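Q: Could you fold this chain for me?
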Amino acid sequence: MTLSREGLDHADTAHRQGRRRVKVLVLSTTFPNPRQPNLGVFVEERMRRVARDCEVVVVAAVPWFPLNRLIRGTRWTGVPAVEERHGLAVHHPRFFCVPRYAKSLDGLLYAASLLPVLAKLRSSFRFDVIDAHFAYPDGLAAVLLGRMLKVPVMITLRGSIVRLSGYRLHRPQLRWALERATGIVAVSKSLMRVACNLGIPEQKIRVIPNGVDSEAFRPLDRAVARAACGLPDDRTIILSVGGVYEGKGHHLVIDALRELVRRRPDLLYVVVGTDVHGDRYRQRLEEMVEAHALREHVRFVGGRPHDELPTWYGAADLFCLATRSEGWANVLLESLACGLPVVTTDVGGNAEIVRHGRDGLLVAFGDVPALGGAIEAALARQWDREAIVAHAQQYTWDRTAAAVVEELTALVRPGQRGRQVDVMTPSHVRSKS
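A: Sure. Below is the predicted structure, expressed as structure tokens.
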């Protein structure tokens, strides 16, 4: 797990040799903005650090359609055309996006909408490479734009490809884009396997997981954290952090609580996350809580600023994510960095983060009795929290960014590729692959 000196010292070496820094154009519809400050924080965290070694400009397009406010609510209104975030120039052009029934056209419409924007931008920022986050629609659009503008393209695979690769109209588009991308990064080995199942050669893909900011996410005094969050001192708290929609499995945790509270009446399930606009899932959860007389055992606190999350982790006794699908669940790594053991589903990259029996417990998705049993067992267990924290701290954003810079540089200057190192895959995952 030692990062190559080429990766760590890339910027310093480039400076000594007088080499021009690589200019990177980032494409990501998932990126923080003043209206949605938590949207795609993991993309921003990576690119902030890549920008230490490369020149970076971000294009985070905003979906637009007539009657947009009625269809998508107000979350995209008031987003500035251009802003600066942590030293990064971020552009928010609009792209034509037909809601609901024409989502298979998003990649093409995205590329068509952004072509004039990128052509104009290139006159002032002559980017060397396009770095696309998510395979669709960003990745497909990036490949189309890269071919027209004659620049290489790197696509980062994230969790959405799991769902989209099963759609009849999206699957061939994903395959086409990945076949023609100059380089591919996957944030987990599980996502690499999804791409391989689409026919992409494994040797074309490099696994570079996300990191965690261990200065921000670290163990805190529980009593102090609970006071800051307004949580009671005398309850056993199970925490979930993430969007409130069906795929995250909050209903499964509530279902498990029906039996658990009979034996553990002190349990309190706290959900930190924002509802999806137009989705009735939160209402369904509320109805479950009422039907099963769990009002004193479930609390929805809504979305919280990202920099508040360490306090919520610090206030909890156990983290629980009963998710259906994940690429690389950043919340799991954040939880562990705070010394909080987890119970989660054995899906996607979760087993690459959580060492079963050492950092938490893994269960099959949808198995409510197993989920309840794992929660009860995890709460009764004495965990080595120092070892949990040490495990999470191996994943740093600096390591991630250094490996990404290696890849971006190699795409622009293929003759200068150094020895590739699988810098982030821990031994408990390597042994299974």
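A (continued): The two ends are 16 Å apart (CA to CA).
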